[in-house]
Specification:
It is built from twelve helices and ten strands. It is α/β, with parallel strands linked by helices. Bound molecules: uridine-5'-diphosphate and manganese (II) ion (MN).
């Protein structure tokens, strides 16, 4: 049963027409960059007793980011296609989100188990103006190594246009929504040697399309690797304490300046902050905040983390990433989690700051 629905035709002109009828959305430069973050989780209670609590915190993190940056957000907790479970759930959802939100130029899918760990970082949308799909990845790993980790499909930016709808149809047709997922699982496995999951998966399906249908799709796909549009948690979480310390020292210095020169405009403090950060080398890779920390393989909802690491490593990593991100939010409210592993404890900030 192929329940993905009738293919949509002529979406670009339909969307243009809609925008004409809704001029408030079409106005201004913001129209080209309107982003709807879409995420979601399974319709039922998590098997892991702490799973739903984690989902709430993962969601809160995304809501905070969207509030700060003026993005819209949609959380889905139903299966739009009963066959499209797990990582396949996002395809009918992305399609529906495009049609339901013609005002959004970009749909930004973020897996529920991904944390936005730089609350200040803005998506560099200008860089993607000639592309329709952006994922984290490396071209040479796609074409030379044909590796499963050459890109990650858990965080993606997809333009609201006909090209994308066609891609989504094609993409999902290789999964359980399509007529022959077993066949696709085998094809993917023979192409992508390090693919571990035996069935058809969406990440492999995208790699397949890039390799086998390069001329049809590749030109409009942007593989990002200059910042962590997706970042694998295992290589990140141990560094978060150090990164947090670096930023806090800079913030403290800027705070001192602010108290001494209360009359100065905020632009000045922004510049000072950048100067301090340059001086401390905070733009360097291991000192900069990673934009996204993705807990791939941790399965926070089911608790069935894969055998490569312990649940404790996942749990501690998630606490660190969530509190690291939350500190950037709480700071404006005058509080901080002094210990990234202790989620309940917060201290009021003024006590942490030296008197001016
Ligand atoms: N998901 C969903 N509905 C479901 C099951 C999963 O929307 O019924 C989403 C959820 O956001 C999850 C994503 O699909 O994060 C992909 O699954 P997962 O993160 O477990 O895959 P991994 O990143 O570990 O490969
Ligand atoms: Mn994930």
């Amino acid at each position: 049963s192929y329940a993905f629905g009738e293919p949509v035709k002529d979406w670009d002109s339909k969307r243009r027409e809609w925008l004409k009828l809704h001029p408030s959305f079409a106005a201004g430069a913001a129209a080209d960059n309107r982003v709807l973050l879409v995420t979601g989780s399974q319709p039922t209670v998590c098997k892991n007793p702490v799973g739903d609590h984690l989902q709430l915190r993962f969601f809160k993190n995304k809501v905070d980011y969207c509030r700060i940056h003026g993005h819209d957000i949609f959380y889905n907790s139903v299966l739009l296609d009963p066959n499209g479970t797990g990582f396949w759930a996002k395809y009918p959802l992305l399609r529906a989100a495009m049609l339901a939100h013609p005002e959004s130029e970009w749909i930004w899918w973020v897996d529920s188990d991904a944390v936005l760990t730089d609350m200040e970082f803005k998506l560099p949308l200008e860089r993607y103006k000639d592309h329709n799909l952006v994922v984290h990845g490396w071209w040479n790993m796609v074409y030379e190594q044909k590796s499963w980790t050459s890109l990650n499909a858990g965080v993606l930016l997809i333009r609201n246009c006909q090209w994308s709808l066609s891609l989504l149809d094609k993409w999902a047709s290789m999964g359980p929504q399509g007529p022959n997922p077993e066949k696709w699982g085998k094809i993917q496995k023979s192409l992508i040697k390090d693919k571990a999951y035996p069935g058809s998966d969406d990440q492999s399906a995208l790699i397949y399309l890039l390799i086998k249908e390069k001329s049809r799709w590749a030109a409009k796909i942007y593989l990002e690797s200059e910042y962590n549009l997706h970042g694998y948690w295992l290589g990140i979480v141990d560094g978060l304490d150090g990164i947090s310390k670096g930023y806090m020292e800079v913030d403290r210095e800027v705070d001192l300046l602010r108290r001494r020169h209360a009359e100065k405009v905020s632009l000045f403090y922004g510049q000072m902050r950048e100067k301090y950060m340059r001086e401390r080398g905070i733009w360097r890779e291991n000192k900069r905040r990673p934009f996204v920390t993705h807990f791939t393989g941790c399965e926070p909802c089911s608790g069935e983390h894969n055998g490569m690491y312990t649940w404790e490593a996942c749990w501690n990593g998630m606490q660190k990433a969530l509190n690291f991100a939350d500190n950037q939010v709480l700071r404006r409210f005058g509080f901080v989690h002094p210990d990234l592993l202790n989620s309940s404890l917060v201290s009021p900030l003024p006590f942490d700051f030296p008197d001016a």
